[in-house]
Amino acid sequence: MTLEELVGCNITDKKMDTVNQALEELLVAAQRQDCLTVGVYESAKLMNVDPDCVVLCVLATDEEDQDDIALQIHFTLIQAFCCDNDINILRVSGLRRLAQVLGEPATVDNSEPRDLHCILVTNSQCQPLKCQALKDVGNYCEESRCKNQWIPYLSLQER
After folding, report:
1. Contact 122, 35 (CB under 8 A)
2. Can you name the residues that pair with 60 across neighbouring β-strands?
3. How far apart are CA 42 and CA 40, in angstroms?
4. Sheet holding 118-122, edge to edge
5. Residues contacting 129, CB < 8 A, separation 6+
6. Among positive and negative, which fits the CA dihedral 91, 138, 114, 47?
7. Is residue 153 a contact partner of residue 92, using CB atoms and an 8 Å limit?
8. In the predicted model, is pLDDT for residue 100 greater than 70?
């Protein structure tokens, strides 16, 4: 491995850590301000009614979800809709970490956990969500599109 490759990998790793942290901060801030829509069906309904209020779509899966054809079809349709409406999209892995960030209770009893496969961050016209984390995630999505990676991918790490 050359010095350029080592330095390049290190910079990329730091950037990914920064974007991961920004995404987590954004989700917490949006949740506090009631600017999150959680669930595939709930997200699809909101995007159908008011796509202009959506600023980010997070599509989350883990390895066990890769064979879920229905979920993959939903993701394909949501991704197409987001691209048509200039909504930033992020694919992430690490549903457990996502649940931790959102303060989801561990499912010990027989209650059904919330569907975290699709999360929308919304921006209301009266109280726009303004935070550096939203800008950082948006910049990452834009940089990825400039590199022809239309749907960037992040791996949320357990802590």
Report:
1. yes
2. 92
3. 6
4. 36-38, 118-122, 54-61, 88-93, 153-155
5. 29, 30, 33, 35, 55, 121, 122, 123
6. negative
7. yes
8. yes
Which pLDDT band, with edges at 50, 70 and 90, does 62 fall under?
A: confident
Q: What are phi and psi of 14, to 5 degrees?
A: -65, -40
The pTM for the full model equals 0.84
Other Cβ atoms within 10 Å of 121 Cβ, number: 27
Q: How far apart are the C-alpha atoms of 78 and 87, rounded to whole Å?
A: 10
Count Cα atoms within 13 angstroms, Cβ side, for 46: 23
Helix, coil or strand: residue 29 = helix
CA atoms of 159 and 156, how far apart (whole Å) = 9
| pLDDT of res. 60 | 93
pLDDT band at 46 (very low <50, low <70, confident <90, very high): very high
Handedness of CA 28, 34, 36, 39 (dihedral sign): positive
> Are the CB atoms for 122 and 37 separated by under 8 Å?
yes
